[in-house]
Amino acid sequence: MSHPVRATTERVSLLGPKSTLRGDFATTEQLVILGQLDGGRVQAPDITIGPAARVTAQIHAQTIRIEGALSGDVYAAVSVVIHSSATVHGNIHSPQVTIQEGALVNGEVSRDATPVATGHDELPNLPLPAARSVA
Amino acid sequence: MKCRRSKSSKGARLRNRKAVAAGVMPAAPPGAGASAAELASSGNHSAVPPAELIIDGHTEGSIHYAGTVRVGPQGTITGEIHAQAIIVEGAINGDLHAAETVRILASARVLGNVQAPKVALMRGAQLRGRIMTHRLPAAETALDNYALEAMLAGAHQP
Question: Which residues of A touch B133 (CB under 8 A)?
Fold first, then answer.
């Protein structure tokens, strides 16, 4: 993937490559992380973690694409794609998981996408739009 | 060089395609392969690496092999696999340890942990277990140090 932002998406939340965010983050738009995110919980319908991104958080989404470094558990209701450039340290909960050869993965893979109690219940439970089909 | 099987298998079809073709097991005609009874009759089997051990039946017990182990779509394995490379198309109930790569194809069902420097999990493959592509403490430290340094430096990374 040459550019992490897909043309099919109408609205995107972007954390730029020189940005750092600490804390929880939730959006109903597609989320593209190219910088550094150090938080407790990140929620969006569609999350892309770019190749240079560094994320330490628990991720909740429909579809997740990881090309950078992630430290934290992943809950994806639809699918997770881990690229060969990715480093993932955490458990992956999704009915559909794809790992490209070369990716560094340390964690447990399970098909159960239901999140466990996170301790971040104060975060508003945002309505998630229907999952987009993965091209 | 060795294929060591801790238990005998029932109804398993084991074929060593390249080894057979290279004439290592001349008793078996190429393509026909060796039956489980032949392979299970003695504990050790030799082959010339890089050979591919194809398992397309049901086997119980751990498998140690210096080459590539391929578990075919009809293969069901209960037990660990230790090999240079492992390709899974069938069902495995047990841990996978490979010195190089583990490829879990879309038709595969794996219940167990996977340990290898390179792991590929195809879309649609079922896996319940832990994936370890690198040593845990080193990776953790590297990632955390990087994150910490970047944070302290005000994230002036490219």
Answer: 103-106
In a domain, A121, yes or no: no
- The answer to whether A106 contacts B134, with C-beta atoms less than 8 Å apart, is yes
Structural domain count of chain A: 1
Residues B26-51 pLDDT 10s: 333 333 333 333 344 334 444 455 57
Task: State which of A64-68, B14-18, B138-142 shows the largest mean pLDDT.
Answer: A64-68
Question: At a CB cut-off of 8 Å and minimum separation 6, what does B121 contact?
Answer: A82, A97, A98, A99, A109, B104, B127, B131
In a domain, B64, yes or no: yes
Maximum alpha-carbon separation in chain B: 69
Specify if B144 maps to a domain.
no
ipTM for the predicted complex comes to 0.72
Q: With CB atoms and an 8 Å threshold, state whether B154 touches A20.
A: yes
Q: CB-based contact (8 Å) between B140 and chain A?
A: yes
| Domain annotation covers residue A109 | no
Residue A110 within a domain: no
Nearest chain A alpha carbon to B151? A20
Q: A87 and B139: CB-CB below 8 Å?
A: yes
Residue B38 CA to residue B43 CA, distance in Å, equals: 10
